[in-house]
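Illustration 12: FAR1 domain-containing protein.
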Amino acid sequence: MPYFSTTSTPPSTNTEDSSHPKQMDGPLSSTGEDMGSFENPASNAETEADDTIQQESDNDRVEEEPKPGMKFATDHELMAYYMRYAKQQGFGVITQRTKREANGRVKYLTIGCARGGKYHPSHSNISRPRPTIKTDCKARINAHLVEGSWVVTTVEIGHNHSTVSPQKSRFFRSHKCLDEYSQRMLDLNDRAGIRMNKNFGALVVDAGGFENLQFQEKDCRNFIDKARQLRLGKGGGEALTEYFKRMRLQNDGFVYVIDVDEELRLR
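Figure caption equivalent — predicted structure in token form:
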């Protein structure tokens, strides 16, 4: 009789749990404190406590080793399970291979260790190869779509490299997650002119320490860089000018020159 996984449901990604305020009236100050007030009705206390308990149980849950015959309703549930398993075992994950039907639906999937495969340099200077994490690791699982369900067919468990502790595995790219709440706080504080070190520090305090974050300061900087680019759009010259003005107020030595047309668009 085929095995039915009891851990196929991905962990909750609710970004408004008990550790996060329900409503924010103002951005964080440069000291990491809120300039407005937070609405936290007492009637929601029991619900928030339940959410916290559920999230802690998801984080503490030990995923069993993958076995042939496991079934999952969707490929997303399959990926979520293997990601949780890889995180507790201390390795990163990538999708190594997929096959699709004529209609574009995926019918075959290989998920494996991020250090699987071999490095093939694409640059011309082969005498100075770039550093790589690839070790041709064979740890992976294969799954087929059978009658609407994803069935694990083959499993490779062993790694040809050392793994890290579960506490450090959150730094692998596949396990990083900049949640919506953190994105919203980063964007609001950046618009308010708060520097990144204090912006990130506010998230660290809110989470109760670095060890409780699923991302690093570098990920926050990358997000803010993209957010600033999206803000430009039409009238980008005006937005860029306002940004330069804020930088000028923060740094007396900051000098800028910008060329815009009559509609405040960059030339």
